[in-house]
Amino acid sequence: MPGARRAAALAVSLLFAGCAGDHSTLDPAGPSARAVATLWWIMLGGSAVIFAATTAALVLAWTRPRIFGGDPSRPLVLWGGLILPSVILVALVFAAFALGERMIGRSGSTDLLRIEAEGRRWQWEFRYPGAGGLATIDTLHVPAGREIEFSVTSTDVIHSFWVPRLGGKIDAIPGHRNTIRLLADTPGRYGGVCAEFCGTGHTVMRFEVIAHAAEDYDAVLARLAAGEAPEEMPGDRP
Amino acid sequence: MSANPDMISPIKLHKELARLWDTPPGWGRFSAVNHTVLGKRFIIAAFVFFSIGGVLAMLIRAQLATSGSAFVGPEIYGQIFTMHGSIMMFLFAIPMFEGFAIYLLPKLLGARDMAFPRLTAFGFWCYIFGGSILIVAMLAGVAPDGGWFMYTPLNSGVYSPGINADVWLLGITFVEISALSAAVEIIVSVLKLRAPGMSIDRMPIMAWYLLITAFMMLFGFPPLILGSVLLELERAFDLPFFDPTRGGDSLLWQHLFWLFGHPEVYIIFLPAAGAISMMIPTFARHELVGYRTIIVAVIAVAFLSFGLWVHHMFTVGIPHLALSFFSAASGLVAIPTAIQIFAWIATIAHGRPRFDVPMLYLGGFFVVFIIGGLTGVMLAMVPFNFQAHDTHFVVAHMHYVLVGGFVFPMLAAAYYWLPHFTGRTSDHRLSVPAFWMIFGGFNLTFFLMHLTGLLGMPRRVETYPMEAKWDWLNLVSSIGGFIMAIGFALFVLDIVVQARFGMPARRNPWQARTLEWATATPPTSYGFASLPLIEDRADRLDPEKLGPALARGDGYLGFTRNGWMETLGVDMVTARPTEVVVLPRSTFLPLWTALAIGSFVLCLLFKFYWLSLLPVAVVVVLFLMWAAATGNREDTPPLDIGHGQSAEVHWQVERPPSWWAMTFTLAADGVVVTSLIFSALFLRVVAPDWPPATAAAAPTAALALAVIASIAAAAAGRFGVGRLKAGASPIAAQAACLLLHVVALAALAAGLAGIDDATRHAQAAMLAAVLGLAALHVAIGIIFAGFGLWRAANGYVSPRRSLDLRIGGLWHDATAVIVLVCVVSGVLLALAAGGEVW
């Protein structure tokens, strides 16, 4: 049936169009997001196998109980309930810990750029130390290819700073200063959102990250500090 | 079993028992204390709230179906999703399981009712009134709108100045009274009111699940209640516990909330798992595999569940190493859960399975819950959580766990126990399509929602731009949601049709082997005309034989006397009969008490703080009337219980149910005190702006006097009990106990008066809270001492009837310890902040 095939093709194309969205964690544009995306695909595959195996055990227990031998509780409860999950969980917990250390802990980078992000209802203000008191609202300028440490806080309620394509989120909490390190591989525009519900303006508390070529970055900040628009924006639509 | 000595006919026995146990008709229905009646009311009320929550869910799905939707604005949307979550958690899931437990537990255990029937009724009214406050607020357009976990400072006075957040804090806390009273009642009923011979290792597996769940509630709810009280104090009186500009911290709220909130998930799941463990053996026609292994696994879940609350807080800036411990613990909890799942599968493999509607719904449970468990392990991994947290991935996960782990098993349980409720058999015409619509609709709604989250859609947004490309996913979810809603409508229709027009069922239609099927169906008010002697594990019985024998009066207590409603109390471990428990008749007191508390809550809600003292006084008087309604002025000789055995009446034994209830209540109380002191310590260590510029001081002399006086009060109470048991009058000692409490209260009041301004800084506010909690205990101690004095003066106590004084004594002892701990913490709080101590 051509109609069904066309519908299937449409579904597939929609799925991939979805994956390439501006906020998609599955379309990573930096090492943190890429590592998590990889972890996700591995966990998804593993989960599919575990789900299939458990469901198969249930169906076989119903239809062909003798497959488990004279005393089915031993293979099922001991192996299925205790030994296999323990092995999988230990491996997963250690792998995730190592990954987390690389993401959050010390990456060894000496070329760290600091930017302050301050959430307030309902906008983000970004400050660039060493750029003449420059502050931008709802637009964040970063150099591509350089690791940035964001120092995140809030002046009112709790917000959460999240650029899905670059990496994980961190909460902006009044009275606290949290840090997160992100890196954009290439120049471009990336969507950012407030992820923690913060009141009626939560939905519109979005921001945009503009990653500039590293060699242009200082010039861009200088122009912004002087009150001019940066002449050319990466990813600008014609 | 020996024959009924008086050889009265089963019909006559039924009539005599029914006359005592039946709830009066007409207005008298409001005085019901019977567990069968109240269990049903709980279940129906919970289902009504579930329907309201479901309609709200439909509004959410209507709003999100397409991008740029203008169906409701952000103000209304905030109310809708907050109320959806709050209703489903607090007004549906917990009360629904309480209803099942209240209805089933005495029948499973071979008792005639729960241990504290008036408390059952009281819990029911608190639930109804508290829930109604929330619903009325919603209809008035002032429902809570800050998210069901009520994060501060968003829900503090500055950012939520309206009444909305107060509705949540006061209404939900009101409802939680019923959760705590159910917890105490379930624990005591399981431990004390079992059939003779049902030793602890013979209990039906459901009783184990409910016992462990009730303990989790006992320790899980106090942190939330404390947090709600502190936040309401901040909102009402500006005490800055959570205000980061004055030494408070919003993270304190998160810790208190999730310290409750995570165990809550297992509190909801475990009773459902208990129901699964009852149903699968019946349909597998084989007893549960791994009875002891499952008990160990459930205890492991209970312990672990208190050690992983931080996985809701991975992005708040806690060091990674610390997060990793909580991550590992969160993964670990999958193991005891997997053990249960495979024990169920093994039970099926061992048996000769038979298919019926409950098994269909349990099939849905397996599929949905396993997926929820797997995504739970994913979310427990810190790096993945950083991406998925607060997105629709979490929304999908949580619905897989809660609907899979609670709703599907409860639907199965509804079909399984419906013949017990109604005495009618199932008619499968609607239940199968209802299942496929609920199951299919559910997966359509939530399966692809995982992807929606990974594509970056945060939670709690009321709209989204078309460029985000989330349209088709959301539309699929919305369509699925409406299919699921139709499925639930079919389910309701099916239940109504079966209850109304089903064919009358014979006893035990599923050939189950547990005791609840030995009652008549529908059950009589008293459950069992006589109580069985259990000589094997309670899931290996033969209800078909047992039922008629018990109805004939062949068991224990197969008669009536003195117009008393009697059931048996047993030794907790061996289940040797130890006492005849005389239960209270139908009474309006629970209704009046809940109404008085409701007026108190309304006074607070509308900020009539001085007026609120009036309902408090009424509540105290009403509770004293509860207590005064039992007991006797004469010693009762040992009572015949049948089988040639006899036992004391419960108020003449050392540790009757009420003594244990007080002990477990004090355990929950201890959690409140510990949580408060943890909170003070947390603020000292973590909150910004410490130490304060000017710290509040603790007047050591007055506080030392308070400690000495309350220890002396406890000693006087103990001395009084000793005098009574030795045959002397306890009146002087009771009076001394009362006076010493008054002294302690005055001293604590002096300490509180020494805090010049509790709103200046969280240090002063915490000092006030710690001393205030101590003072509250002392004030209640005065009431207990006064009640003891009155009972002693009016001849209600004797060397054999010392229970009133001993229960008061438990309170006096606990108060002495709590005052000591609170005063020491208060002094340290003053010292650590650089305040004077004088």
UniProtKB/TrEMBL annotation, chain A:
Q: What GO biological process term is on the record, naming one?
A: ATP synthesis coupled electron transport
Q: Extract one GO cellular component term from the record.
A: membrane
GO MF term list: copper ion binding; cytochrome-c oxidase activity; oxidoreductase activity
Bilayer-spanning residue ranges: 37-63, 75-99
Which cell locations does it reside in? Answer: Membrane
* Family matches, as InterPro entries: CcO_II, CcO_II-like_C, Copper_CuA, Cupredoxin, CuRO_CcO_Caa3_II, Cyt_c_oxidase_su2
Recorded catalytic reaction(s): these are: 4 Fe(II)-[cytochrome c] + O2 + 8 H(+)(in) = 4 Fe(III)-[cytochrome c] + 2 H2O + 4 H(+)(out)
Q: What is this protein called?
A: Cytochrome aa3 subunit 2
Which protein family is named in the record?
Belongs to the cytochrome c oxidase subunit 2 family.
PROSITE patterns given for it?
A: COX2, COX2_CUA, PROKAR_LIPOPROTEIN
Q: What is its main location?
A: membrane
Its function, per the record, reads: Subunits I and II form the functional core of the enzyme complex. Electrons originating in cytochrome c are transferred via heme a and Cu(A) to the binuclear center formed by heme a3 and Cu(B).
Keywords per UniProt:
Copper, Electron transport, Membrane, Metal-binding, Respiratory chain, Transmembrane, Transmembrane helix, Transport
- Gene3D superfamilies the UniProt entry points to: Cupredoxins - blue copper proteins
Q: How does it sit in the membrane?
A: Multi-pass membrane protein
List residues of the Cytochrome oxidase subunit II copper A binding domain: 110-223
Automatic annotation (TrEMBL), chain B:
In the bilayer, the protein is annotated as: Multi-pass membrane protein
Q: What class of enzyme is it?
A: translocase
Q: Where are the transmembrane segments?
A: 42-60, 80-104, 124-143, 167-193, 205-231, 251-276, 288-310, 322-347, 359-386, 398-418, 430-452, 472-497, 608-629, 659-683, 695-719, 731-755, 767-790, 810-833
Major location (coarse):
membrane
The source's superkingdom equals: Bacteria
Which pathway, per its entry?
A: Energy metabolism; oxidative phosphorylation
Give the catalytic activity.
Answer: 4 Fe(II)-[cytochrome c] + O2 + 8 H(+)(in) = 4 Fe(III)-[cytochrome c] + 2 H2O + 4 H(+)(out)
The name of this protein is cytochrome-c oxidase
